[in-house]
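Might I ask for a little of your time on a matter of protein folding? The record follows directly beneath this note:
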Amino acid sequence: MIDHHAALIYTMVLVSAADREMSDDELEHIGNVVSHWPVFHDFDRDKLSTYAQDCAELLRGENGLDTAIETIRAALPHKLIETAYALACDIAAADGFASQEELRLLEMLRHELAVGRLEAAAIERATRARQMTL
């Protein structure tokens, strides 16, 4: 079983890869998140690429997406469910727009992680506010 850091990184990688194209903005944002979000304060950054590769390998397997989401769900403590969804939303918005594939994956994560409607709406609105430009 993976740890909570890996689960959060898997979440970000899943969203970034959802449209089959991991943009430079998304990859840079993943690095920034790992460097600055408090949940990663005790994370060894040298493991980031290994966890990302492990997630990609999992996705290549049979039922890869379902397996990856189940792996994430099993590894996340309840306390970090909303954090995972917030990370997913941030990565989806990192390149300025969310593709239909990314939106569908967010819906799947919301359902599988049991993020409540109000909580999801608040997280999505906060993401939109953070990404807003003139």
Residues 117-131 form the longest helix (15 residues).
